[in-house]
Amino acid sequence: MRTLGVLTALWLASWGSLGLAQQAQESCADCHEQAKQVQASAHAQVECAACHPKHEAYPHPAGIPKPGCASCHGSIAADHARSVHGRALRAGNTAAPTCTVCHGNAHELKPATAAEFRKAEPETCGMCHSHVADEFRGSVHGAAALRGITDAPVCTDCHGEHSILSPESAASPVSPSHIRETCGQCHGSVQLARRFGLSADRIISFDASFHGLAGKSGSQSVANCASCHGVHNILPSSDLRSSIHPKNLSATCGRCHPGAGRRFALGTTHQLEGRGEAAAVVWARYAYRILIPLTIGLMLLHNLGDWVRKLLARRFGPAAPQPRIWQPELRMHGFERLQHALLAVSFTLLIWSGFALKYPDQWWAWPLVHWEQYWPVRGTLHRTAAVVIMAVAVAHVTSLVVSRRLRSHWQTLWPQRSDVTEAVGVLLYNLGLSSRKPQVSAHSYVEKAEYWAVIWGTVIMAATGLLLWFNTLVLAWLPKSLLDLATVVHFYEAVLATLSIVVWHFYFVIFDPDVYPLETAFLTGYSVKPPRAETPMEMHAEEHAEREIRQ
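The chain above was modelled as a monomer; its predicted structure follows.
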């Protein structure tokens, strides 16, 4: 009851104060026309005495200063003081807009949220920015605003209201770093997209593109919404005057990519997976989405079965025989170890910087993205590592041509028909589908699969990477769909390569019980495990472990 009483008292007090304000205005209206005008303005609930002190004296005293707008609107006045308009006023520009220039006389000003006020904004701003206002009125936004559509953006929706800053200012909503968020207020809204029949995927598709990813990580020079669509003269793509009309795309994109689209039409720019993509792009994505789980899945089954069998053989098998004296096997010559070191370092940097380009928000990308505003660390590091890995590939081929010793060693990695038989037999044995493990060659399918996967991956990644690197040349001479295909293949091939290294290579050089904790051939040249052919005692230990499991 007490709460109800308090609320009732507050309600009565508010109505009482409003009544007093109306009575005071009505009294002033007997002599002053402004008192009638203010009743229809945004100041309708403000008493005349709030701005006109000593009004009760008659005749009214002359020369009494009236309070400024800042006395009631302090935060707004502070925003205006920081804006380009406020700084211009302080610099002595008497033509710079003040509160009354934009809002009108204090007795007649309309609420800023009123449809009438928003519709008049282009004319208001056009008093100083006539050329810009003319462009805006002819744009798709200006035409909608003139029709009275209150959701259509006007000047203040993009530039701000009182704290208007120069586009060159990093804090401005129309600066390159914020233009995506500003446009996204409308074009990222599903509700507005449905109401006006707009495409709801424009922000999403931009974020997934090269331009969006680069802008997200702080690049100030990459193309943003305004770079392609224009600033105040934005027109629909169906308009021949539009910068994004198919006939004008070559010139628009050509500002950053000279010659783009001069031989082939550029086609769709905002693309999402499966929507408007070339058939080759769609099929490549589907192929990798089948290939990657299948390949990595088989690797996991193979290695997990191998690890479990070796672990059980050590746990349940007979005591290990006395170590045999065996001649260490030379696995890698000195030049091969150097190639391996360069390959390992460059591959690691490629993976880190490449996925940091794709996923700049992840914690592991922060050390690279942190410096992006000063220097393009990720792109520079990625391209440098790519050059190193391509140089290693050239050095490898050259060494095979000029060195008979290296060529002879390399021949042990040439695929044989027996490799397939060995791989299938070992997989079946590791999965428990075969009772006897087949004999495996010294350089078996394990090493050959790794080697030829590196060859295949290097060729694919280098080819697609060069297309993406020299994208301006590609856009000038080849269809844009080729870049889209290169983007898909480059990404999924990187995923496949990374998972293969982790699941396949790391197992055989680290987690394999025969070499754990590390196969040191890449350091010393010699393997830590005996020759691949197993002794009868080793095979007997595995058979004994199987009998223990069955029992």
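The chain has 27 helices and no strands.
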